[in-house]
Every structure is written in structure tokens, then in C-alpha cells.
Amino acid sequence: MANPAPDRLLGVRDGFLRFLSDRYNRSTIVVVVPQPAEQAPSGLAISDEEVLGWIGQRAEELETRLGDAYHFYVATEGGLHSLVVDGEVRTFIRNWTVLRSRLGSAVGSSGSIQLPDRIVSGLDGDQIRFSVPGTRKEGGLISSLTGGLESRRQAIAESTFHALSTLFYGVLESHPTS
Fold first, then answer.
1. What is the pTM of this model?
2. How far is residue 115's CA from residue 125's CA, in Å, rounded to a whole number?
């Protein structure tokens, strides 16, 4: 069992604060309580399906284990995904968040950042998951790719914000679209 890194906790908190503070235009207190979780599989997940399956299961296990102790159960993780663009395979990284509550569950993602071809050229998915630059201590792959201008914490905040937006769509008053 492992405890979440501080950037995960702060990112989840930042996503909740953005959603609640911006919506209600007032100070909001958000408490994120870390829970022990199984260690992530070694290396990055190499598909959206893989990362979503893993964090969906983690969020469900939290809710089952803790019952009504909390309002929300959140699991978040970064992962790789590939697309074929103009006949070329392009590999990206993004963060996913699964959020569960009495209202149901929702999923959100951050934006994607393409891995430079020179890093992944000639590697298969299993090799890529272990070959990407960045360390947890230095903010991870997103920070490495953006020269520190964006961090894992910001990606987690964005994916959490997006999951909350989906979960509460139509439940809280919505903003006009036009």
C-alpha cells in the first residue's frame, strides 16, 4: 500500500476549489483526506482504457471500503494514449480522474501533450511506458515536456475539475451557453 504524492492531493484539492469557488464566487474550504491505495502498476498505463480501468476500480474500492464516511471518492492517474494521425502513430500523455459520489460517477481528463517522436521512435508500448523522461520529484513527464510551465498538479486539477463539471451538470444551476 502507498500514500498519494502531495501533488496528487493538492491537484485534487485545486480542482474542487476551482469548481466550487468559481461557481459560487466565495471562499470554500476543501479537505482532501489521503487513503492508502495499492501501488500503481510499474510504468505508465499505455492506453486510456488501461488507466481508466485501474483508477475506476480504485475509486470503487474506496467507496466500498469507506461507505458514507466522505462525500466524494477520487482516484487519479496519468497515462499514455496513441492515435494515428496522417498515417503516423502519435503518443500522448494526459491525466485522468474518476470521481464517485451519491450522485453517481464521472470521469474527467486533462489536456494531452504529445511525446516527441525522438523519444518514442522505434519503441513499442511496453518499452514506452518505461522510457519517458521525468521523475516524480521533478513534477513528472508533463513538467518535463513543458519545461516546468505545466505540472502534474495542474493536470490533476484540470481532470478533477472536468469530472466535477460532468457529475454536477444539470444538478446545480447551469450557465447559459449563449
1. 0.86
2. 13
